[in-house]
Amino acid sequence: MSVKSAVSSxxxxxxxxxxxxxxxxxxxxxxxxxGDAAKAAAPGASAPTAANSFTxxxxxxxxxxxxxxxxxxxxxxxxxxxxAPKPFADVIKDAKVQQGLFPIWRxxxxxxxxxxxxxxxxxxxxxxxxxxxxxxRGLYASQMGxxxxxxxxxxxxxxxxxxxxxxxxxxxxxxxxxxxxxAFSPSxxxxxxxxxxxxxxxxxxxxxxxxxxxxxxxxSTRLEMAxxxxxxLDRSNSFIETARADERxxxxxxxxxxxxxxxxxxxxxPTPSPVPTPTPPQATPDPRSxxxxxxxxxxxxxxxxMAVRKVDPRLGHFAESFTDLGGDLKAxxxxxxxxxxxxxxxxxxxxLSEPVTPITYWMxxxxxxxxxxxxEAGILEWNKAFEKIGFKNAVVARQQADxxxxxxxxxxxxxxxxxxxxxxxxxIGPSHTDPRTGEILDADIGMSDVFARGSRRxxxxxxxxxxxxRLAQMTAGWRDGQGAAVCSYAKEAAAEMDFALDVxxxxxxxxxxxxxxxxxxxxxxxxxxxxxxxxxxGLKHNFKASTTITQKQxxxxxxxxxKGISGSVMDYNAYNLALKGEAQGNYNSTTLGPYDYWAIEYxxxxxxxxxxxxxxxKIAARSTEPALAYGDDADAGGxxxxxxxxxxxxxxxLGDDPLAYFKKRLKLSQxxxxxxxxxxxxxxxxxxxxxxxxxxxxxxxxxxxxxxxxYVGGMHALRDLPGSTGRASYRPVEPVKQREALxxxxxxxxxxxxxxxxxxxxxxxxxxxNEWDRxxxxxxxxxxxxxxxxxxxxxxxxxxxxxxxDLPGYVAPGERKGMxxxxxxxxxxxxxxxxxxxxxxxxxxxxxxxxxxxxxxxxAVLTRAPASLPPDALSLAxxxxxxxxxxxxxxxxxxxxxVESRAHLADSLGQLTEALxxxxxxx
Length: 923
Prior knowledge:
The protein is an alpha+beta fold. Among the domains are: 1-82, no CATH class; 91-157 and 194-264 and 283-299, no CATH class. The protein is 35% helix and 15% strand. It has a 7-stranded antiparallel sheet, with no helix packed on it. The chain is globular and about 110 Å long.
């Protein structure tokens, strides 16, 4: 049959016409009608046509033989391209679709993502959350992961998921933008072959979602950090678990299997290592195999970017930060936009208006029913701050139904997630933002069940590990994108709660498991939720806020009921425990503080664009008000190069005199120890109750040792803009305060008298014999040594030495008299630690441990001093070491002590003499 007769007999048979033209000429005929072409390629259509499988020829390609115009009729058809994608309708035949930003097709175990041509090279927000995990060592469920501004790119028959580089930009200069695009590379997150020919109507192609069965978030590194084992991603046993899509979001959850072929055998003869080797997974049935669920989110960016608001350093907001290279005249090319939700009034003229779109938090169905009211109260407390700037019901809390079949880990729901783990005890408040503007698009607060179970059920004798080290261990390298580790407030607050409850129970003020204890825990949950919601509203920590309340106000119940115990819920606030005989105010924060209102006002107050800069300047200029004192994580120190030099910026202190607070904490620990020793144990007690209370006191003193040392060589820091107030940016801590702190460490924490326990009490501290890994007798000398070591390391650190040497330069010559010197600090530490050399008294074992630790540090300085130690500090250390050598010689010659003390002194003299003779090796 001829082409003409075929068309005349069936004028609508466009498929046959296209096939005939292809057969004769090697190319497809043009489509006659759009509607007919759509019918031919619609999902579920009958057999594919040649038009469906046509792929346009690349520009400049050489046509195959016989395809040129005028080729002889009946020429042989060129062979089909085996690499050409199949027709769209063929690929998705019998598949079910979820329409959305990127439609998702599923047939049995096969899943495809439909990529419209209009969405190619168009940025969207790509994020990965962790829905399920191992349950230990920082590998927990319900954790928000990484996010990128990304786009799909089609390169030939390959689709690439590309993370765009937003670290370097040109805000205005397009010429610079082209240069930046050439200079800084994007990153390839994943890729897969195009799985179908282009849909003729929707102009879209399919990609097999199996490309997501890879380690896009880099979780294998997390596993290696936790276990030091070679876990690899097992793609053959990984699969797409669930999918969801709507017009602004497409979400797929991948269940990814990690495995290692074998667990190495332990050494035949265990040898101690300076770096302990972690055990294999303990929370999985078989340590060789584990599953992790990745929630992949493809979210549409706002069509109209939100107006940006620049960060002011006088108060603390998380920032979208980048380097603006669009021009050469900027002294500082760094730009910082406030991270905040888009909040607009329904009625801009009204003094108080509901927002167009409220900030809605979905409460996870896993939250225990008994705690839901406290969680909701913590969320809604922030409405007080928004009402001050004209918004009614700006923040909304909604409860996920217990029978809901959707996961609030997707990017469409800000949520409060409740999760569990074998060793977990923290909360975290991260968010994902539009990198163009800083607009917060999603937030998932993770709340562990540390309060539901009570961390007092865990005996954790890690008092030698700082809160920041514990945090680093817990988070295993996951960051919030701004260099600061995630928030550990819940875990630390739970430890504080345990100490407070132990003290109050020992006094008889609260009955264990009674209504007062329940109310106490509910208040702690509200406090913690307020803190974490604050993070998801864009607020950073404020570790100076607690110093804005006086010690007298803390004892005033009426004041603390109305104003709280701190200037901000964004501090790590300790529990307000009065000494015996003192008036007792509120135990913890129950409401927002002045700083919280101020920070919300700066970020969210509606302002006319023309007046915004001036108005924001007025708001930020209030930083000189005492109630608005501010200091962030770097100010508090405890990580990286930041050791924290301002003693007013601390985690877990309370009141306007932190040193007085730490002295009070020592008294509270000693009161707890005395009461625990007086209490007669009962057979029905938890066997670890007394042991846990004892360690709770040590944990309090460990934190005090960390922070009191900040006074010595400390400097107060202010965040005023240059020339704005006339106040000094840096001011040395008053000499009297430095000496007071030094003496507290010398006579309090370095004294063995602070740690006296009755033998009958220590001998009665049992273990849990139901557990295999139960430990043995409590090592009190080791617990004391850990407290003393952290204080000594602070006093003898290179940073402290450098600041003590530099402090005179910050004071006028006429005011330098009476300043504390580095030599005075070295002499005080050495004289306190080795005081028995002058008194001639017996040296207790705890004191011998302390002296050995001091000698270790002295030896290290004399033989391999760190490069960061100033030369003057090295000279002074040698001078005091020679003095100590003479004192040791005299003590050894004198005799009259126990054999243990004489052996200790002789050994110490030998080690110090060798160190003084050794050749210096500067590291």
